[in-house]
Amino acid sequence: MKRIALTVLLALGTVTGMAGDYQSYYRDLPGGIAMQEPALPSIPDLAVGLTEFGGVGDGLTDNTAAFEKAVAALTKQGGGHLVVPAGIWLTGPIVLKDHIDLHLEKNAMILLTPERSAHLKNGKAVPGITASKRTDVSITGEGVIDGNGEWWRGVKRSKVSDTEWNAFKRMGGTVTPKGDLWYPFNINHFDNIADSYEAQEKMRTHLIRFTDCERVLVQGVTIQNSPKFHLVPQRCKEVTIDGVTVRCPWNAQNGDGIDLMQCRNVLIVDNTVDVGDDGICMKGGAGAEALKYGPCENILIVDNTVFHAHGGFVIGSEFSGGMYNIVVRNNTFSGTDTGLRFKSAPERGGKTGNLWISNIYMSDIQGEAVVFETTYADRPVGHDDAVAPESEAFLPDFRDIHISRVTCRDCRVGVKASGTLQMIHDIVLEDCLFFYTEEASRIDDPGMLQLRNVRFETYR
Q1: DSSP 180-248
Q2: Phi, psi (5° rounding) for residue 187?
């Protein structure tokens, strides 16, 4: 194994070095919140190229073994940078280990193989890139990670044009008897991985997932076209997501952008999100099982732009572990279905505390600029009706939320809150301006929200 040229190491050092100066974001935090910037991964200076391990970036060669060999070689040396040069690097799942940085140079694309059987482990599909119970892991660079999601996702006829619908049918696949859904089942060129399109639809998985990791950095790359959620840190500590672009078709089912699941000490800064479901979303598990993993806590979300998404900033629907010490400020939402979205239901709910949201700029919001919803229900593709909760356990308890200096031009409804005082209370909106086209507000009980210097304007 050889060391890559000094210029490459210097470039890598510049990337990670720039990521380390986040102190300014943590000054003057509201509400007495005391947070520190997340610790960055410790990556040794050693750098190796994927081609040293047989990698070929021609878009045809399977590079799964090359990635595995490169990670193993770096692990023996105590870690380092795995450099992916310009090219199209077709591969199956990639597993990262301690002290390893997966670095994509400009014009490098990691393309997950559409051969779905290559993603199976013990009969289940695994994410494209994973790290589990690891320390000091990162994905950096200027390249693209593409999940080839169109080979996995069901498509609703109502969400696509005739041209798009015909393009999907040319891939083969299965159209339901009603003609309202297309599934990539019995598709051209590739075998099914389940006995029915319903079963195969449930096997969709995430593109990038970090589980139980500490000191994680994702910086600079473009993450796109996932089979399901795109970037999912779950139960992780010390996480930085900086300057990342996350994108997929607007109508991609379950195409969430960035989903934090019960993570602590996180910075999400200067990212661009344009996806088919929730944009930047906080999740905290559902029911009693979530309690042992704790809350999403000490989260700073700043200077991000969200274009299409079901919500720009979202909590829920499941957050039984709780949501505490979260600051969201200086973000732009343009073209999202909703702006600030708080959604949950019995059996999924938990408590929120010390949430501060300010300086949010919205335009062209399709529904509500701010919405609290406590009767949320999942409706997977192919299912018109959702199953109602069977008990009143784990009720949502949205409280201690402070929203200020929101400016929204064009939403249908300015502010909406659906539920009871037991589930929505002690929430303040102040110094906000909403330009609406249908209704200023729709609030079930006036005691839910305190509106202070909130202006609602519309056409005269």
Answers
A1: SEEEEEEESSS--SSSSHHHHHTT---SEEEES-EEEEEES-EEE--SS-SEEEES-EEEEEES-EEE-
A2: -80, 160
Whole-number average pLDDT of the chain: 94
Tokens matching residue 339: 């702006």
Residue with tokens 């950096």: 140
Report the C-alpha gap between 458 and 437 in whole angstroms.
6
pLDDT by residue (tens digit) across 355-391?
999 999 999 999 999 999 999 865 555 555 555 555 6
Give the pair of three-digit tokens for residue 310.
């079901």
- The amino acid present at 199, given as its one-letter code, is A
Tell me: pLDDT of 14 over 80.
no
What DSSP string describes 368-397?
EEEEEESS-----TT-SSPPPPS---S--B
Q: What are phi and psi of 255, to 5 degrees?
A: -85, 55
Backbone phi, then psi, for 62, in 5-degree steps? Answer: -80, 115
Q: What is the pTM of this model?
A: 0.94
CB-facing half-sphere around the CA of 146: CA atoms within 13 A? 18
Q: Which helix (H) or strand (E) holds 50?
A: none
The token pair that represents 299 in the structure block = 């989260």
Residues in the chain: 460
Nearest partner of 309 among 234, 377, 259, 380, judged by Cα: 259
Q: What is the helix (H) or strand (E) element at residue 4, kind and residue range?
A: none
The partner residues of 429 in beta bridges, in order of sequence, read 403, 451
Question: By the 8 A CB rule, do 155 and 233 touch?
Answer: no
The two structure tokens encoding residue 313: 């900033």
CA pair distance 375, 361, nearest whole angstrom: 27
CA separation for the pair 3, 75 (Å, rounded): 15
Q: Calculate mean pLDDT across residues 30-51.
A: 95
> Residue 252's beta-bridge partner residues?
none
Nearest to 298 by CA among 343, 340, 328: 328
Helix or strand holding residue 140 (H, E)? strand 135-141
> What would the DSSP string read from start to end of 413-429?
EEEEEES-TTTB-SEEE
Q: What are phi and psi of 96, to 5 degrees?
A: -95, 150
Give CA–CA dist 340/398, Å, rounded: 13
> What does the pLDDT read at residue 385?
53
Q: Alpha-carbon distance 57 to 203, whole Å?
A: 28
Q: Is 93 left (phi over 0), alpha (psi -120 to 50) or beta?
A: beta
Q: Which pLDDT value is given to residue 391?
A: 63
Three-class SS state of 11: helix
Q: Give the position of tokens 């344009």.
A: 274
pLDDT score, position 18? 40
Query: Residue 10 has what pLDDT?
Result: 45
